[in-house]
Amino acid sequence: MSSKEERDIEKAYPTAEFVEKLRRLADALESGKKFEIQIAGERVYVPVRAEYSIEHERGDSEEEIEFQIKWSHE
């Protein structure tokens, strides 16, 4: 397997696009299929074995919820 360049991107999407991506993710999870998504011009393939979590952070002036999807390259 070829090694990929490290990357740390945060991409904002309009609400309608974000909802569409979440719906596609939910459909993939329910059907037991891999999930494909394009983020900032790069296509990412999320395997079925991925692990899902939700993170909540709170600071003095803002809060954040992150839906996280993690997997190792096997």
The major pleated sheet works out as: 2 strands, antiparallel
Shape: globular
Helix content: 10-25%
Question: Approximately what portion of the residues adopt beta-strand conformation?
Answer: 35-45%
**Rg, alpha carbons:** 14 Å
Average pLDDT: 93
Query: What topology, given as strand order, has the largest sheet?
Result: 1-2
| Beta-strand segment tally | 4
The class by helix and strand makeup works out as alpha+beta
> Tally the helices: what do you get?
1
> How do the helices and strands follow one another from N- to C-terminus?
HEEEE
Report the span from N to C terminus: 9 Å
Explain this structure:
With 74 residues, this protein is of the alpha+beta class. The protein is 23% helix and 35% strand. It is built from one helix and four strands, in the order H-E-E-E-E. The protein has one helix spanning 15-31; strands at 35-39, 42-46, 51-58, 63-70. The strands form two sheets. Strands 1-2 form a two-stranded antiparallel ribbon. Strand 3 (51-58) and strand 4 form a beta hairpin. The longest helix is centred in the N-terminal third of the chain and has 17 residues, at 15-31. The radius of gyration is 14 Å and the shape is globular. The N and C termini lie close together (9 Å). The model has no long low-confidence stretch (mean pLDDT 93).
